[in-house]
From TrEMBL:
Alphabetized InterPro entries for the sequence: Acyl_CoA_acyltransferase, GNAT_dom, YpeA/RimI_acetyltransf
Chain ranges passing through the membrane: none
KW Nuclease (keyword) present: no
UniProt xrefs under SUPFAM superfamilies: Acyl-CoA N-acyltransferases (Nat)
Keywords associated with the record: Acyltransferase, Transferase
Name of the protein: N-acetyltransferase domain-containing protein
Any one Gene Ontology molecular-function term assigned to this protein's record: acyltransferase activity, transferring groups other than amino-acyl groups
Origin species: Candidatus Chisholmbacteria bacterium RIFCSPHIGHO2_01_FULL_52_32
Amino acid sequence: MRSTRRSSLDITHLPWDSELFGIKVYQVSENVTLTPARLPRLIKELLDNQVDLLYYLHDAKRSRDVYTLTASGFRFIDTRIVLNIELKSAKITDTVPWFQLVKRNAGQVNLKPLIAMSKDLAATSRFSADRLLKKTLILKMYKTWILKSLEFEMADYWFGLGTPSDPFTFVTFKTIRPGEVSLSLIATRRDLRRKGYGSALLRHAFQALLAKKVNRVRVGMQLTNTKALAFYEKMGFRSVGSWYIFHWHR
Ligand SMILES: CC(C)(COP(=O)(O)OP(=O)(O)OC[C@H]1O[C@@H](n2cnc3c(N)ncnc32)[C@H](O)[C@@H]1OP(=O)(O)O)[C@@H](O)C(=O)NCCC(=O)NCCS
């Protein structure tokens, strides 16, 4: 989630997560590796600053450090895998109706099916794998994420299948840099899964993104979500790296 403040040891305050969970949440900044030599100073700083929860992604290539991390109170949550796809123009033959939401028509979307899908997104998230976090707050997090995506605060592109009044699959993307987006949220209504809808929507979304000069999509996900992994791999996404997700709680 969005971050603001940086402390001396490359940890970043996460105001959104802090407000939601009602505790002080930080993350270890990107590209910072917690080596065994660095840990004692970091733990002291976390305690001095009364940090309640720290997120950390540790490069899976450095598996030798895992023992020291767990011995220092870092809880292993899951493995994060990042996948990429280079977009290519293609002719689409799917006949299922699709739509794109923009600021102008976002208010017309029926929230009920989206909120129902937020439960599945919450259940497959890394937060649900941390039994110290309250399930109700994780649900609230995903519901808020969906609402803020409809306000285009947490999404730059929003596509759905069906109609705005009856969406049954949706996907959102956020710009990372010119020409590249990250796939943020995707879900198909539970009773309509495995019918080709998720892939049909991505095919439409990819062509619409190409028309906006976006040619690469990245997605970060949990390795334990094997269904979604099979889905992304079938769509042509390929893994570019993996990280161990750790949460440290005071
Ligand atoms: C991931 C998700 C969006 C896929 O949507 P979907 O509409 O069911 O996907 P499709 O029917 O287009 O599936 C396309 C392919 O993906 C793979 N796939 C999809 N669901 C699968 C499952 N449950 N088990 C194994 N493979 C699966 C299959 O290869 C499938 O092709 P096939 O049915 O011809 O074998 C859906 O499962 C979902 O909403 N999951 C919950 C939310 C979630 O996990 N989101 C991703 C967070 S990273």
